[in-house]
Design goal:
The chain has 140 residues and is mainly alpha-helical. It has one domain. Helix content is 74%, strand content 0%. Helix 1 packs across helix 2 and helix 3 packs antiparallel against helix 4. The termini are far apart.
């Protein structure tokens, strides 16, 4: 519980400190504009990546594969979009790291290796058939 409380206090304090430093370097209006610009670009890119992930997930479902990677990727894109909407440069940096596909793939692959997830492949075969009913000659 103490580490969670530290995060709640520490992240905004780091964001404020970073905004003050950037504001001193580039000016207050440019800093505010940069915060809005990163939010707009990030949310747009999150939308594009989210749609690509949904498309890939449906493709896996059509191929009877479990879309585990797409589920984790979609969750990380949602977290990235939330982080990009929160004003600040630290959260924007973490959001963009989660949003870009190469870094997201690296993080997801590490997560899956740590969890030792192995996808179960279905070895059952589907047999197609047709049911024919014979009519009794006595009923006619």
């Amino acid at each position: 519980m103490n580490s969670f409380l530290l995060l709640i206090i520490g992240i905004p304090a780091a964001e404020i400190l970073l905004m003050i430093k950037v504001g001193q370097k580039f000016g207050a209006l440019n800093t505010v504009f940069l915060i809005f610009l990163t939010a707009v670009i990030g949310v747009y890119y999150a939308r594009v990546e989210g749609l690509n992930t949904i498309r890939s997930g449906f493709l896996n479902l059509y191929q009877n594969k479990t879309p585990v990677y797409e589920i984790i990727s979609g969750a990380s894109i949602a977290i990235a979009a939330i982080l990009l909407m929160i004003p600040g440069f630290l959260t924007d940096t973490v959001g963009f790291i989660l949003l870009f596909k190469p870094t997201r793939n690296l993080l997801i692959n590490r997560f899956l290796k740590n969890k030792k997830y192995k996808e179960k492949s279905s070895t059952s075969e589907v047999l197609e058939g047709e049911i024919l009913e014979e009519k009794n000659k006595k009923d006619d």
